[in-house]
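[step 3/7] fold_predict: job queued, chain A
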Amino acid sequence: MKKILTVGVIAMSLLACNTNPLLDQPNTPYGVPAFNKIQLDHYLPAFEAAIAEQQAEVSAIVNNPDEPTFENTIVALDRTGMLLERVQGVFFNVLEADGNDEMNEIAEKVYPMLSALNDGIILNDSLFQRVKFVYDQREQLGLNPEQMRLVTETYKSFANNGANLPEDKKERLKAINEELSLLSLQFGNNVVAETNSEDVKRFITDEALLAGLPESAKAAAAEEAAAAGHPGEWLFTPKRTSFTPVLQYCENRELRKQLLMDYTTRANHDNDHDNKAVIIREMELRIEKAQLFGYDNAADYILADCMAKNHQTVDAFLQSVWAPSLEAAKREAAALQQLLDQDMPGEKLQPWDWWYYAEKLRKAKYALDEEELKPYFELSNVRMGAFGVATKLYGLQFEQLKNMPVYNPDVEVFKVTDAEGELVGILYTDYFPRAGKRPGAWMNNILPQYIDAEGVDHRPVIINVGNFNKPTAGNPSLLSMDDVETLFHEFGHALHGLMSKAHYKSLSGTNTPRDFVELPSQFMENYAYEPEVLKTYAFHYQTGEVIPDELIEKINKAGKFNQGFVTTELLSASILDMDFHELTSAEGLDVNAFEKASLDKMGMIDEIIVRYRPTFYNHIFTTGYEAGYYSYTWAAVLDADAFAAFKETGDLFDAETAKRFRHLLEQGGTRDAQELYIEFRGKEADPNNLLRRKGFIE
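[step 4/7] structure written:
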C-alpha cells in the first residue's frame, strides 16, 4: 500500500535548530503551518534561509559530476525549493487575505529576491545544458507519460524564460523581471488603498435616501458605520458586498451612480495611488520581454504555452461568443429602458440603472426576488451543499477541525478524506472581507501535493478565500445568488488541488494551462442551483424550512435571465485584455483613451461598463492572467460540455462519468489538457452547449 504522509512533512535537517516557526518542522496537526506562532519579523529571515537552501540544492545539481539523467537533473530540480514552497505558501496567502503596511514593506523586499532566485535558476547555462541533455534524449529513456511531461515542461520553462538568449539579453531580462514584480505589487497595493480610502467611504445620515434597500443591507451598513465611529449612520464603500445591494434595490439614482463610479474609477484619480503610469510601464516591459524572444507582442509570447497557442485563435473565439452575447444584451437593454421610461420618461438607461431595473424585471417576469432567496443561502449551509456535491461525485468526506492554528479568527479548517478514510488534504476557508484583504475570491495552495522519492504522498493544504457578507447582530452571513456561484466556483478549484495525484509538484493540482485551469471551478457552478442539490443545503436560516419547490422553479426559469449582460460584461474585459497585450509598442499609450477605443471597436453599448476597467484590473496587471482573461469563457465551453456529459446519462452524479471526471482532476498538469478532456468526453467540447445554456441558441 502506498505510504501517506501527514501534510507538509519535509526534510529540514540543515535548519533543525532554528527557532523560526516558518523554518522549523511545525508541531501542528497534519503538519499545517503554525500560523499562531508566526510573527512579522519571521518572514524575511525565513525567505533568506529558504532561498539560500534552494540555491544550494540547485548548485548540487549543477556540480554533479555524473552524466545528466532524468533522476539526477529533472526530478532533482523539481524537488528543490520545498522549504521555500512552505514559506511562500504562508506569506503570500496572508499578504493577500490579511495584509498590512508592514507586510507590504516585506513584500517589496521579497519580490526582487524571488525574481533574482528564479532568474538565477532559469538563466544558469550550466543547469540548462544538463536539462537540455536529458530533453534531447527523452525519446530513448523509456519514460512514462508523466515523466515525459515533466521533461518537456521543464525544458520549456527554461527555453520560454530566457535560457537560450545571449548573455546581454539575459541580463536585460533579469532587470525586466525584477521591475515587473515590483510593479505588480504596486498595482495591487494601489487598488487596495483606493478601495479602503477615506475619500470613498460614503456615510449616509438620512435613511430616506436608502428607500428600497433591504433591511439586511441597511443593518450591515449601519454596523460598518458604527465600527467607523459614525453610530446612527450607514456606511457604503467600493467593496462589492457593500455597494451591490444598493445597485440592485436602492431607489436613489444618484447614490447608485456615486457608488458605481467609486468602484469603477479606483486607481484612476491622478493621485498617489493612480495606476495608469504603472500600466504603461508594465506594458512597455511586457512588450520588450516578448520581443526579446522574437514575438511581436506579449499575447503571442504568453499564449504559446496555452491551449489557444496564439492571439488569432483567442480573438476568433471571443468574437464567436461576443456577437450573440451583445445582441442579447441589446435586447435586455431595450426591455430595461421600457421600465425606466415608466419612472423617468425621457431619461436614458445608464450603467447604474442596469442592476436596479434588471432586479425589477426579474421580479416582474419570474416573480423572483433575490432578497426572498437570501434567507435560504446561509453561508455554512451553502458550503455544506458544495461539500455534499463532492461527496456524491467523488466520495470525499469533510470534517471540521477545531483549535487549529489560523492567521485570522474568521478562518475555518477542514480535514478531507476519501471513501476509504485516507487523507486527501486540508482545506482552509476564509470568507469575510477585512481591510487587509484584496477584493475578489480565489483559491491557493498553502502546501502543494507531490510524491517523494520514497513513495510518500505529501497531501496538500488548500485555501478558499472570499469576500462575502459578514454576519450582523441580527443575521448570519446570507449569500446572494452570485455569491453562491462564487463559493461553488472556488471550491471547484480547491477540489482540483486536493485530489491531485501527481508525482511532481510542478505538475500537481492547478499547474495546468491557464485556459484549462478554470474548467474544474466552473464545472462545479453547474451544481449550485440544480433542484436536487438545492434541497441539500438551502434551508431558511430562521425556520429550517427547505427551499420550497416554487422558489426552485423560479430560479430555474430565471436561469437564462440577464445572460447578455453577464456575458458581455465578461467578454468585454477579455477583449480589452487582448487588445492591451496585442500592442507592439506602448509609446504614447493613454490608458483611458485606449480603453475607450477598444470598447468602441468592439461595439460595447453605453449601458454596460466593462467588468474590469484597466486601473483596477488585478487579473491582468497583478495576478498573472495577462492575455488570459479569455480563459474563463474558453473553460466555460469545456464546463458546459462536461456537465452535458452528466445530463446525457440522466443522473447528475452518474458514477462512471464522475469516475472519468475525477481522473481528469487527479492528473493536474501531468498530461496535455486537450488530450485529457477528449479522454474524459470521448470527443472535443461542443461550443453550442454553452450557447444553449445561456439561451443564445435553442
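[step 5/7] annotate
The radius of gyration is 25 Å.
The chain is about 55% helix and 5% strand.
exit 0
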